[in-house]
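REQUEST ID: PR-0412
SUBMITTED BY: lab tech R.K.
PRIORITY: routine
TASK: structure prediction, single protein chain
INPUT:
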Amino acid sequence: MFRSAYADVPPVELPIHDVVLGPAAGYGDHPALVDGTDGTTLTYEQVDRSHRRLAAALAEAGLRKGDVLALHSPNTVAFPIAFYAATRAGASVTTVHPLATPEEFAKQLADCAARWIITISPLLGTARRAAELAGGVREILVCDSAPGHRSLTDLLATTAPEPEIGFDPAEDVAALPYSSGTTGVPKGVMLTHRQIATNLAQLEAPVPAGPGDRILAVLPFFHIYGLTALMNAPLRKGATVVVLPRFDLETFLAAIETHRITGLYVAPPIVLALAKHPAVARYDLSSLRYVISAAAPLDARLAAACAERLGLPPIGQAYGMTELSPGTHVVPLDALRHAPAGTVGRLIAGTEMRIVSLDDPGKDLGTGEPGEVLIRGPQVMKGYLGRPDATAAMIDTDGWLHTGDVGHVDDDGWLFVVDRVKELIKYKGFQVAPAELEALLLTHPGIADAAVVGARDDDGNEIPQAFVVRQPAAAELSENEVMLHVAERVAPYKRVRRVTFIDSVPRAASGKILRRQLREHP
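STATUS: complete
OUTPUT:
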């Protein structure tokens, strides 16, 4: 068993809105949220006052403790206000992908019995249709304005008293994100106030923040990574969060330059763009002090190329999953220069880990031996909503959550994640890690992006198949060239056996490759 070197943190027995915005009065007129496209700025005092007024209005409208409110929006400065208002009024917030189809949205609404929706006017058609399909939705509110729907601005005019709700932080669900569905049916992940708040306390020592920090929020708030790293954590400590609704490279770079961003939390596709795209050279990114990548494997060579180009300390990584609130490992900011290349970090406070054999799950492994990563700690989810069997399959009777990730630990406690258990390719009995081949493919100058999945050959054997996006100047890149590039650099059993050229690699909003879509590619 591996334990954190940090001192344990006591469980945080407060609702998440008080944990994050309780200190807001002390930050007063300091900017809390800035719209990265038009410069609209909300101070801490405004965010605190607005979320309390909105909570009062939601309660006046009939929202009661235990209701589920669906927050269906890209990143905006209104998103945090809506989130904290809903939790203060007693709701559990289920966050919804802005690009969800009405049918996908409706399944989520029905699964969690959501009674309220907050959306934006461009997404109103989807929200209305989803509400019709699901049934049970009492009202659809909008962040901006739309005929026939009350807006958050309208609700802020209420004179109703602020609701006084009795919370049980250990049991009451604050956030109900849905797992990505890349390996199965999407499930509601029940995260209590205590679990999310304690995870913030666990992350504070390795990744400190304060009023001098300016964080760029381009990863989606609806994903637990964005909700924690880009919203809850910086706002809890008085940092300024500059909000972008989506990733567009030029807008992203301009925001770093204009707003003098100090820290970036990103996924590997953004690291790839920062390392390779010519547009990067046109912007002043000198304000940046660090970059942390998470949500998907990041190749050490790509990380090094990005850091060198930006003149920064090595790119740090973090590790976790929605079911872990989400963090368990991170490379501390003060250790970026001496952490080994490719590590996803060390255990954060109060967290335990086991590495167990893939062939004998009851057998614990030591340092240097790859196996499945198991986690135990106060950040482990309450469970999957309405799915006790799925919960039991994920969390054993001793409280260990089985991540499905394959990793190993070195003698100094640094974790290296090799791949997903279910994504490992078995080629003639040998295990092949897609992430390793993807990292190698990206070293070819003619390849802009790549993904590898297991496919079947004519004999029914599983083989590594690469899906490759050519660089614009490499239109003539052939299948044989790609396979040779890999074959010259790996053991024979790891060679790519088939190549398909595509326009883009499908990814979830978190940056994870949607391998199931690739397996279904014609």
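NOTES: The radius of gyration is 23 Å.
REVIEWED BY: pending
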